[in-house]
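**User:**
Everyone, produce one record:

**Assistant:**
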Amino acid sequence: MSFKKVDLSFQSCNSEYEESDVVIFSVPMDATTSFRPGTRFAGNHIRIDSIGLEWYSPYRNMDLKDYKTSDIGDLDLPIGAVEDALDIVYNTTKKILEDNKKPVMIGGEHLVTYPVLKAFSEKYEDLHVIHLDAHTDLREEFFGRELSHATFMYHAHKFLGDGKIFQFGIRSGDKLEFIWAKEHIHQRKFDFYGLDTVVEKLKDKPVYITIDLDVLDPGVFPGTGTPEPGGMQYKDLLNAFDLFEKLNNIVGMDIVELAPNLDPSGASTAVAVKSLREIVLLLHK
């Protein structure tokens, strides 16, 4: 398996794969989306709109052009073959990790984080996950499927184990999911309160951060398949990025669940674009 940069890359992230420290890839998949589809279009909409993004982040005091980042584009997935697609995501992540680079994934529905976490857990025995989301994603099955965007974290727990998953912003899910969470994971409902304490606790642990952008309020981020009122403001997410800077071993990150077709204003894509800049720079920090 070999990777090459794409002609249309995220902002200035156009280094060759071999020389890069951070590698961006996107997963055009919304095969198990339970309400409104469209996340398969996120990657390239983000790339196109990144043309209007400043390379410099005043939040990190860092500039994208000062770092070597490769963007290998959308993965080539078989339409309708969910398990085969997940295998491709897993193998891609595993290859990037074997090459000692840090992956940044753009979803796609949140199920695509499952094979990424599987690959990471095989490399990092003590992997911990920070999960920002409106939804629990802890169902055992959904609409007859074991693996879907509503179940992926429950099944990831099988190889991560108790005490390794830290959820914030949660405000939607089945009652049984909330009951199960109390016994197995750290879950903060409604806001990011206590994230600073968790960051301090995980300061020297290998940490993967997965961000479902529907953790934001629909007034900030309407372009998503399952919007949940009562969410976070964008400054809350920026504050979370500030906290993540204190982690000494962020091994990978993702953003998922942007459906650009559901927000003709382009505001949701702008949110994703700016967030991706901060994520890439966090991994270079």
